[in-house]
Amino acid sequence: TKNDFRRKWDKDEYEKLAQKRLTEEREKKDGKPSPPVKRELLRHRDYKVDLESKLGKTIVITKTTPQAEMDQRNLGMSMRVERSSLDQVKKRFEVNKKKMEEKQKEYDFEERMKELREEEEKAKAYKKEKQKEKKRKADDDLNFEEDDEMAAVMGFSGFGSSKKGH
């Protein structure tokens, strides 16, 4: 039809090209099938991923940006994980247990020091407040004595009101 602008593929021609390419590849290898590629199993990272530094930022993904599965394949890794043996699991548990104990000791020491500092600061603040309170009371007592003297000089006994009987 005239309005059909889609490209038509000649399947027979492309099939012939594919067969030709396959026969050329076989001839190059002398008819021997190529051995399967031995890929390395997936392994743990030996570094920590820094996610906090990129938080809230926009990143442009380019062709060179690593993209998980394809990049790992290109690096020669299969997408299979090595099965751990019982000994490996036990060793891993021991290592994790030691890490937890070290963190616990470190945490206890640091936490205790922090608590002691806070208690000392509270004690200092409490003492300062008491001293300020004592000063205020002493100042107030002096002021009351001066006020009483002033009242006597002026001819009345105090600044407070008193009830008068009628």
Compact overview of the structure:
This protein has 166 residues and is mainly alpha-helical. It has helices at residues 11-28, 68-74, 86-154; strands at 40-42, 77-81.
Describe what this molecule looks like in 3D.
This protein has 166 residues and is mainly alpha-helical. It is 57% helix and 5% strand. The chain is built from 3 helices and 2 strands. The protein has helices at residues 11-28, 68-74, 86-154; strands at residues 40-42, 77-81. Strands 1-2 form a two-stranded parallel ribbon. The model has no long low-confidence stretch (mean pLDDT 79).
Features:
elongated; two-stranded parallel ribbon; single chain; 5% strand; 166 residues; mainly alpha
